[in-house]
Amino acid sequence: MHGPCTRSTIDVSGCTVCPLLKKMGTTTRYLLLLARALVASALLAAAAAATTTEYVRPPPRPIVLTEHTDPATHPQQVHVSAVGARHMRVSWITDDKHAPSVVEYGRVSRNYTASAAGDHTSYRYFLYSSGKIHHVKIGPLEPGTEYYYRCGMAGKEFSLRTPPAALPIELALVGDLGQTEWTASTLAHVSKTDHDMLLVPGDLSYADTQQPLWDTFGRFVQRHASRRPWMVTQGNHEVEAAPLPPVPGSPAPFAAYGARWRMPHEDSGSPSNLYYSFDAAGGAVHVVMLGSYAPFNASSDQYRWLARDLAAVDRHATPWLVVLLHAPWYNTNAAHQGEGEAMRKALERLLFQARVDVVFAGHVHAYERFTRVYDNEANPCGPVYITIGDGGNREGLALDFEKNHKMAPLSVKREASFGHGRLRVVNATAAHWAWHRNDDADSVVGDELWLESLAANASCREHGDPGAVSSRDDEL
Ligand SMILES: *[C@@H]1O[C@H](CO)[C@@H](O)[C@H](O)[C@H]1NC(C)=O
Ligand SMILES: *[C@@H]1O[C@H](CO)[C@@H](O)[C@H](O)[C@H]1NC(C)=O
Ligand SMILES: *[C@@H]1O[C@H](CO)[C@@H](O)[C@H](O)[C@H]1NC(C)=O
Ligand SMILES: *[C@@H]1O[C@H](CO)[C@@H](O)[C@H](O)[C@H]1NC(C)=O
Q: What is the pTM of this model?
């Protein structure tokens, strides 16, 4: 437990400070973080022991710190995201401030027939200064096609596959990732079975202001995030607000997230990287990424943008409407009770009137699926709510369920295990959802169901919202 560090890991339950961390120069703050994690995991363990007999929550596992050992000009933290139907954004970081923001790419390995130049940014967080963060949009690209690419004219070759231009499409979902051994097994399970895109409802690195942990996270996910588009939205761990009162030169909230994880918000008319939408499978699926930590009330930009975005969806052309956000609106866990309530009150009606099919959330570190709900009551024309905040972060799994919660009868399946989900949209009417629990080396289907698109249901097109503005319903 307190022996020398043989691997680049930190054991959160009996810690050894590794040489790598010392190099980061943040040892003291890190120890505080570890002490906090220690107390939290002890509390979690005590709670789990007190309340369960048959089911044992898997304990948290050590953090994995991934180093960059290649030259400073070589790309690291490579990840890709979809921009419109025919383009991809390639993002990476170099320690070298002179490395060019250029991507060479083509359909044959090492024979690049095209190249694109982009832009770069960087940010400071008190004493931390980021590397050069490159963002390059490549394309037009063929759908469902493998491309080989190289970043900044240096280092190794990567490959990616563009998403398909029509159904079927397979979307993998994982929330509250972190960078622990559990995260590694979750991502290994995601990659073992093919998928077209990965959607993250927030909480990526768990850097929690320790900026070098954003870099280790970027390296940790590179193997997966460089191959398939990763479409993310923010969680509370992305905020990283500077301590109050703000001192001159304090970093803005989302400084790291905004610089590193640029999403295609302009393409959906969103003024903020904190919320946006995109089409998948040639427009058969419209995915809306909401910002739980951006203003959302009726006079906010997010509200106005969402109303516009949903009104522009033609459900004949787009039978599937999927929403992601971080703090769940429905949750029967003791953890984070009520934290999504203000946002639910502000936005639930918009989603219901648009007949959103399914809403995915993270934040609560457990799996939970509700039946179709609107305004705290079962409603066959409301979205299915699914919490998937169990990617593998260092905080461990959620506290016990509140059996007396008023929503408990509408909660269909709940389990505090790590894992990931898959939404396979088969055609205009049917999609298959499956939650894959991590059983160590295996991934086991712990919950599954077939969903029917609400756009395909004549009864939901006409009824379901007695108080709704009728002109809105007529459009659907
Ligand atoms: C590289 O690609 C070009 C264009 O597709 C082709 O003409 C050429 O033969 C390829 N070269 C090699 C070595 O594969
Ligand atoms: C919306 O939130 C802003 C602050 O974000 C506040 O000033 C305003 O009064 C709020 N409006 C409503 C209608 O709640
Ligand atoms: C859609 O897929 C489901 C599940 O495979 C199938 O039962 C159904 O017949 C399909 N519908 C159409 C219109 O192809
Ligand atoms: C459509 O919605 C209605 C409720 O509005 C529900 O009873 C029905 O099961 C749904 N599915 C089909 C195939 O009609």
A: 0.88
